[in-house]
Each structure stands twice: as C-alpha cells, then as structure tokens.
Amino acid sequence: LVIVLDFGGQYNQLVARRVRECNVYCEIYSYKTDLEKIKAMNPKGIILTGGPNSCYEADSPTYSKELFELGIPVLGLCYGAQLMMHMLGGKVEKADAREYGKTEVIIDKTDSKIFEGVSPKTICWMSHFDYISKVAPGFEITSHTENCPCASAENVAENLYAIQFHPEVLHTQEGTKMLYNFVRNICGCAGDWRMDSFVEDQIKAIREKVGDGKVLCALSGGVDSSVAAVLLSKAIGNQLTCVFVDHGLLRKNEGDEVEAVFGPEGPYELNFIRVNAQERYYSKLKGVTEPEAKRKIIGEEFIRVFEEEAKKIGAVDFLVQGTIYPDVVESGLGGESAVIKSHHNVGGLPDHVDFKEIIEPLRDLFKDEVRKAGLELGIPENLVFRQPFPGPGLGIRIIGEVTADKVRIVQDADAIYREEIAKAGLDREIGQYFAALTNMRSVGVMGDERTYDYAIALRAVNTIDFMTAESAQIPYEVLNKVMSRIINEVRGVNRVMYDLTSKPPGTIEFE
Ligand code: XMP
C-alpha cells in the first residue's frame, strides 16, 4: 500500500491513478488524517500531493514532522515538496514570476534513483508561484530549470524525495517512469495489484460475506452497475436478483440490449427482473418543464418502482451499490478535495427496502479499472466501453416537457449520430457525445412543402474528469452526414445544430 496524502491540489486523483498504473495499490487520505492511523496502515511509501496554498503562511495545511522520521519513503510533489523543505529547515519563497506549463528540466544528478532511465533533459509540467530557494539540510538538488534552481531534491539517507513539478500529469513526458521508480524501486512495492487478482479476491470476499444470503441489485445497464452485477453473479449465482427499471428514457434499443446480456438468454446466472415503467414515467412527467422538477420526478419514481419490486421479493440480506472510488473521494470521504458535485446518481437509497447491509464491490476502483475488471470478467466490449449516460437519461436531453414522441425523436437522432461517429472511428476518442432535443421549432422547407419542426442539437465533448470539458472537433464531413441522415430519417426534425459550448460555462447535459 502507498498512501497519497492529499493537500487539496487538483491532480490528486491523477496521482493515485498513476500509482495504480504501476500495479501498486494506493489510497488517498486527507492531510488531516492522524499520523497514528497512517502508521497503522503500514504503508510502503507516502506521496504528498500539490495544493493551492503557500506553505509558509500560518494557516496553510501542514503535517506532523514525525512523518518524515518514520523511515518510510516520502515523495513530496509541488506543495508537498515545498512543505517538506519548509518543515525540515529549507526555505520556500514567492517567485517573481509564476512558472507554468511545459518546461525543460535539466537533471543534475543522473544517478538519482527517481530519475533512473529518464533523459538528462526532460519536459515536465510546472505550475507554481512559490519556489524552493534553499533545500533543507541533508538534501541535495537533483534537477533544475531555467527559472527555478531546484526542480527536485532528495535526501537518500532519510528516504525523502521532493519534486517541484507534476510527474502525474501527462504533459510530463517521463513522469510515469519517475513515479514507477519511486513506488517500485525506492518503496520496493511488488507491483502485484492487477485486475485479475482483484476480480479473484473480490469473488472470494463476496462469497465469504454473503454466505447463503440473498442479494438485490439495481441494474442500470451502465458500466458500473453491470460490472458489479457480473462480479456478484460469478460469486453467488442466483442468490442475486437484479432489477432493471426501463423508464422509457433510455437510448434506442438499450432496454433490449441490457436484457440480452443479463436476462435468461444471457450468459450469467442470476435472477433478472425487467420492469417496463415507460408509461408510468411519461404520465408523471406530463406537463413538467422545469429541469430540477423533472430530475426529481425521475429519481423518486425510480426509487418507488424499485421498492415495489423489492417488496415482491421480500427481505434480502444485502443491497448492491455501484459506487466507485471517485464517488468516494468526491463525496469528501477520501481525500481533501472539496465536495465538487453532489452526487447525481438516480435518487439515493430507497427507504422501504428491507436489507441489512450494503455491498459496494467497486468502491476502490477508478473508472478505467472498472472497465479492466469488466473485460477480465468477460463482459462484452460494447458494454464495457459504453459512454457515460446520466441516471435521468433522455429526460434531461429533451428540453421542456417529455413526451413519448419526443423520446422517439431523440432516440432515433442519437442512434444515427452514434452510428456515424463509430463509422468514423471516433467512438473511443470522444469523451461523451449525444443528441438532444431542443424545445425549439422553426420553419423549413422539404420538397416543396413548408415544415415547422424541431431542432436537434448535437453535443460532443472531450474531458478528463467531466468537471471541465471542451467541445470536440468533429470533422465537418461527419457532422454533415449526421445532419442529412437525421433530417431525412427522423420524422419531426428539420434542423440540426452543433453545440460548441465548453464547460464551464455550459454543462455537458442540457438540463
Ligand atoms: P454535467 O451536465 O453536470 O454532466 O456537466 C457531467 C457528467 O455527469 C453526467 N450527469 C449525470 N450522471 N446522473 C448521473 O448518473 C445525473 O443526474 C447526471 N447529470 C449529469 C453527465 O452525463 C456527464 O457525464
């Protein structure tokens, strides 16, 4: 285990992901975590992350100095590096100019273990105002840049390493190598964190925990709940019941696709219940136009439908949740990151389902690890690489009132869009893309006839974390083809527009 001690920087999850890419398991903890707790976890290494503060200011995040005296290798990154120097007797000061962006770093100590296999001059990502003007006693400078006398330093005898730049960011070309050197060579981690062992261990753990108990799972067809369901099915077979609520706001044919995989004709042993609640949802949503009201109705209705099904099944021992690690960190339980978005998973927990305990088998995984686990479990690729789809579904991609006819329009347009994106080979490249139905109707001409129909908006964004995003640059020919197909094939549409807005100020979804 490596511990990533979070000082509130923006790349903290990235640090943890990179460490795991080195096949080393790590967890993120807030800098407020007690030293005794850290010691009790017996980590092989500790990484201090960046953060927005200045370490010499009185109320800035800090840590017990004893952390550096445990003999456990410590790597400080950016703020973490400055804090290490500051606390151990070096000096950190405000620089005249901020060093920001891709920067050439010149390695002074080429035999430093951190830089093993790294080029003597290497491009790194810098982002700092403060700089280390004097290293702490016992430390040696191991690299510098044109503007920064100390880009990294180390005290080998004490196992302490400091790096001013961000090896976790992809712009640091040899950053992963540096982190690998730290966790594998300096900390001596074995590198046995692999998805096949995760899957095996989880199956064993689930069997032990569940015994001959009954388990209930809400299956949405998304990646997380699908992987969780298959994991449980492999562990406990038909002690598992999955309830799949088709709320009529899914993508075209999606309900049937989910049923094909998880239903009785599919390869998995489990009890599958599909609830066709389309009409029920449409009637609840009739006349409702306000986005939050729509979201609320969809979420609450989901809980009600689920509860009704659960009642038929009777008491169960466990309820499965598809929580993944970023959910844990973002809800403020893991690291120091502020609560960034309140969790907009459908609904929340049902109040009236009779269960004793929750099982969250994916709680420790990042999204890409969930996908790897999915592949390891033999789940079809098109399901594993399915793009994110919001819980409220097409309900928030139809601006204004939702009707069955509008659902049909947006489903058909979206299916064409996805088909053409896949044909152009862009489907794994673009972060998220979909068609939405604007509530706008306008005049057009088709054949010799005047039309007065809806406008479809196409959205496509590239993003790392879905908190910021930029519109994707889809080739014009592809957009043109999509436009002409939608207008020709989807009744009720006479205009197609491409949404260029980035996030912020826009959000990815329309409502
Ligand atoms: P926004 O629209 O907030 O979307 O920029 C960011 C990401 O979150 C997804 N999203 C949701 N996912 N339930 C979900 O499970 C929701 O209510 C919800 N709203 C937005 C959205 O698809 C995008 O990936």
UniProtKB/TrEMBL annotation:
**Cross-referenced Gene3D superfamilies, in alphabetical order?**
3.30.300.10, 3.40.50.880, HUPs
Q: Which UniProt keywords apply?
A: ATP-binding, Glutamine amidotransferase, GMP biosynthesis, Ligase, Nucleotide-binding, Purine biosynthesis
What's the EC number here? 6.3.5.2
Q: Does the keyword Transmembrane helix apply?
A: no
Q: Which top-rank group of organisms is this from? A: Bacteria
CDD domains in UniProt: GATase1_GMP_Synthase, GMP_synthase_C
* Gene Ontology MF: a single term: ATP binding
| Catalytic activity annotation | XMP + L-glutamine + ATP + H2O = GMP + L-glutamate + AMP + diphosphate + 2 H(+)
One GO term of the cellular component aspect? cytosol
Domain annotation GMPS ATP-PPase: ranges: 193-386
List the catalytic residues: C78, H166, E168
Q: Does the keyword Endoplasmic reticulum apply?
A: no
Q: Where does ATP bind?
A: S220, G221, G222, V223, D224, S225, S226
Give the metabolic or biological pathway: Purine metabolism; GMP biosynthesis; GMP from XMP (L-Gln route): step 1/1
Its function, per the record, reads:
Catalyzes the synthesis of GMP from XMP.
User: Subunit comment for this entry?
Assistant: Homodimer.
This chain belongs to the protein called GMP synthase [glutamine-hydrolyzing]
Q: Write down the species.
A: Faecalicoccus pleomorphus
Q: What is the lineage of its organism?
A: Bacteria, Bacillati, Bacillota, Erysipelotrichia, Erysipelotrichales
